[in-house]
Q: What sequence folds into this?
């Protein structure tokens, strides 16, 4: 497990943990907006951070693809291919969890 985490790198691990935290906050994001307390995170902060995290994840996937295409050894190619698969899974999770929330926001009654 430690080898896998060190292969991802500390910033990608923090990105993944942050995305998991945001995914866990989604069930509590509906309802009335709260301006104080812990519910402020789920009703104000998390929905505002999701688009930023989405594009950061896409940018890291793009850069991992660039590094994959220029990797000269099999270890480097395997590392960046693994990173791309992990980030693709995180992207799918993010879209599955937060997609309905943003779809509801953009619907016109």
A:
């Amino acid at each position: 497990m430690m080898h896998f985490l060190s292969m991802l790198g500390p910033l990608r691990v923090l990105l993944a943990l942050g995305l998991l935290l945001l995914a866990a906050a989604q069930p509590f994001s509906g309802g009335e907006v709260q301006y104080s307390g812990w519910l402020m995170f789920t009703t104000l902060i998390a929905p505002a951070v999701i688009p930023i995290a989405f594009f950061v994840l896409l940018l890291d996937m793009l850069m991992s693809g660039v590094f994959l295409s220029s990797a000269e050894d099999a270890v480097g190619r395997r590392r960046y291919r693994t990173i791309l698969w992990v980030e693709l899974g995180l992207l799918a999770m993010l879209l599955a969890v937060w997609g309905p929330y943003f779809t509801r926001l953009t619907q016109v009654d």
